[in-house]
Amino acid sequence: KPELTSTILFYNSLKINWKPVTGTISYKLERKSGNEEYKQIALLDSKSFEWIDKDLLENTIYSYRLKALGDKTESLENTISVQTPAILSTPELIAENITHENIKLKWKLVTNANKYVLERQAQGEMTFQKIFETDNLLEHFDAKLKENTTYSYRLKALSNISESGYIKIELKTLAILSNQSEENSTFKVFPNPTSEQLTISFLEPISGNVCFVDLLGKVVFEQQIAKQKSLIINVSTFKKGFYLVLIKTNKELYSQKIIIE
């Protein structure tokens, strides 16, 4: 009788292999799952020694039975049972506005996953496009976006033999209400450029979040404030270059470009 082996290809497909049997004209392969009766799924010629079974159910035990058929005789049947892998858990995805043109996306580790694929669809677009793929990171900064625009994201986890469903999330980028040319209407930043410390002076007490973002969209400093009129920040350890100071309240975002020398 034929000697059977199996290989899992994906959560919904597998491969059955067997060694040749002398005098065989054809091989009859049957399959069942659960309490079903065996049903023939293939009749293969004598030069065929494998069968790829597709469109299977995930996390299901399938039993296969193979018989070698000769001109006037047949072999004993041999059987093998294989369980398909389970689908991976759907990731948890969180999106957060960092600036008017930057969104930070974070997700939690998925058991048995070794890859994450993130896709984006902008307002007015018809399809999702892959923007990021990683095997070990759990966050991504999406930069150079349009302000006051809705973006849809979807993420799935993958392993060598399985994948998760998509998790989808939607977020609208913030609208700029103040920029460098009109920062006096809300706050002042000085000295600019600076190398040691930076003072932010608010015209009125303000509550919210103050953060510094570099040119890559990465947050390098963040602090919550509550009804404050000023804030002094030590920037002596910052790398030299351009930064964006962001003042975020519940509904508004104000920004100011600064230079660290």
Report on the structure:
This protein has 261 residues and is mainly β. The protein has 3 domains: 4-83, Immunoglobulin-like (Sandwich); 93-172, Sandwich (Immunoglobulin-like), CATH 2.60.40; 180-260, Immunoglobulin-like (Sandwich). Helices cover 0% and strands 55% of the residues. The chain has no helices and 19 strands. It has strands at residues 4-10, 13-18, 26-33, 39-45, 50-53, 61-69, 78-83, 93-97, 103-107, 115-122, 129-134, 139-142, 150-158, 167-172, 187-190, 197-213, 219-234, 241-248, 253-260. The strands form 5 sheets. Strands 15, 16, 17, 18 and 19 form a 5-stranded antiparallel beta sheet that branches. Strand 10 (115-122) and strand 11 (129-134) form a beta hairpin. It starts with a strand and ends with a strand.
Q: What's the quick description here?
A:
The protein is mainly β. The protein is built from no helices and 19 strands. Strands 15, 16, 17, 18 and 19 form a five-stranded antiparallel beta sheet that branches.
What attributes does this structure have?
261 residues, mainly beta, Immunoglobulin-like, 3 domains, five-stranded antiparallel β-sheet, four-stranded antiparallel β-sheet, 19 strands
- Given helix and strand content, the structural type is mainly beta
Mean pLDDT level: 91
Main sheet makeup: 5 strands, antiparallel
What proportion strand? over 45%
Oligomer classification: single chain
Level-2 CATH architecture of the largest domain: Sandwich
CATH-defined fold name of the largest domain? Immunoglobulin-like
Number of spatially distinct domains = 3
State the helical fraction: under 10%
Succession of helices and strands: EEEEEEEEEEEEEEEEEEE
Shape: rod-shaped
- Distance between the terminal alpha carbons, to the nearest Å? 79 Å
Name of the CATH first level of the largest domain: Mainly Beta
Number of helices: 0
Low-confidence regions: 179-184
Radius of gyration: 30 Å
Tell how many strands the DSSP assignment holds.
Answer: 19
